[in-house]
Amino acid sequence: MNNSMSGKKKSGSILSHAVLILFALSALLPLSLVLLNSFKDQKSIVRNPLSWPETWHFSNYAEAWEAANFGRGFINSILLTGTTILIVLFAASLAGYVLAGNRIKGTKFVTVYFMVAMTVPIQLFLFPLYFVMAKLGLLGNVFAVGVILGAVNLPLAIFLMKSFFMNIPRELEESARIDGATTRQLITGIMIPLVRPGLLTVSIIVGIAAWNEFLVTSTFLQGQNSFTATLGFLSLNNTYNTNQGLMMAASVIMIAPLIIFFLIVQKYFIDGLVSGAVKG
Amino acid sequence: MQMRKATNYLLIAPSLLLSLLIVLIPGLLTLLVAFTDWDGVAVSPSFIGMQNFQEIFEDRIFWKSLFNNAQWTIMFITVPVVIGLLTAILLLRRKRSRSAYQLIFLFPYVLAPATNAMLWLNIIFNPVSGVVGYLKNSLGMSITSPLSSVHTALYAVASVDIWHYWGFLTVVYLAALRQTPGDQIEAAQLEGCNSWQLFKFVYFPSIKPTFSIMLVMIIIFSFLTFDYVYLLTGGGPAHSTEMLSTYAYTFAFSAFQVGKAASVALFMSIMGLLASCLYIWLSKNDLKG
């Protein structure tokens, strides 16, 4: 009896491991194929994309870096993402503080507004915005696009910051008030240091979203000089269809920094995903 | 005291102003433009009433897009949800390997749609240099790129998007499952519940609020889906993967019929708004806070 129970448990455990490994492989195999083929030339990729490289073409990387203009692209990506993060941190932390404490008359209204704003399609405001930006000569301006992505990511950031502020005990604020702290002192001296993990979480979630964004970025950034790394990478696709080794090397240049960054900040990233979605 | 109240309005102002200028006002402009024949250039477009809506409702491709969005929704509320739940439940008991699995599952989710789409396009689906090409040319199997057939393109695009998305659900579901009160689990085990009963009567009720919110979010975003479709097929072949979003985008930037694009965008927004109401209703507990 006991034996068969543990036998059953064991086979269940093996099965569950097998399922998890299968799904892990489904995530990893396509990425490994990219890495593997980034060292091969077109001929050997066409012969067999699943084979180990016979000769290692490290030059694919240098060629890809040149062809996609990644030097320029990464600088633009950093400027754009940095703009988005700074704007979102400033606006969302202040708004989160106000909404968490129910400090204004229209708290409910503002909350509903940002909930709707979070789920509205980008196409709802994209077209008029595009033609206004064109009029203002702001197409191709990475900072302007950074601001737009700031507005797009703002609602989620506000709700994240709000939940971080709500975890601060009310008494802390009250005692600071009794000691005569102004709102400014209260926020910069007490609140902001306490929600620092929240600021980090918001920066990471919003930063990755802005870095990866496609619809807004590709619509507004025209002209090679304003291309982000992503757009530079995409511009390869038509020209280098017959040089897949170069395409794969460019993909690795796109993928590797992001995966490394993700592994470094994993705790904050997962915290952000979860607190944005899990309802208690 | 009075000053302090005024300060609070000042603090919310940057967020409201930013959203007003970039989301709300252009959004209202879309509402206006939807009833005009604006081409994006003209200074004074003429008001044409419901004509844009009449024309899109008569367009076969509009209905095709709507139907594709509906199919997309059905695929997304089933496949990734089932995979996410299954893997989350399996990870619940793997205390040591849990975080490693979570990280691996999130890899595709963290990467840009542009990178993921190009990856599948070039090394998997490509009929010359991809795995598909290898199976066809070297092993002699009779397959073509699933993206090039009107019968399979939608499923192929959805597969790539689902491949990138399901890990997110695993992480969210797992976090919710872990909040299930321990005493409830113990009580159920003492009562002799088997694994399925434990899930059905203890774990699932506990994660239900999260589960419903995620379902609503999936429905909303299924009606807005753009990136993978646009990058992998651009809506083709023969509109077989056309979505409302790509349909609107083509009107605005290929045909310069901005009025029409706006009317499609408005239609999408109304669909989204209905789902948003559901979302707000489900998170009404947050509003009390």
From TrEMBL, chain B:
Pfam families: BPD_transp_1. GO terms for biological process: transmembrane transport. Keywords: Cell membrane, Membrane, Transmembrane, Transmembrane helix, Transport. GO terms for cellular component: plasma membrane. Residues 66-279 form the ABC transmembrane type-1 domain. It comes from the Bacteria. The chain crosses the membrane at residues 9-35, 72-92, 104-125, 153-176, 210-231, 251-282. It is found in: Cell membrane. It is a multi-pass membrane protein. Gene3D superfamilies: MetI-like. PANTHER family: BLR7065 PROTEIN, SPERMIDINE_PUTRESCINE TRANSPORT SYSTEM PERMEASE PROTEIN. Belongs to the binding-protein-dependent transport system permease family. This is Sugar ABC transporter permease. It comes from Paenibacillus paeoniae.
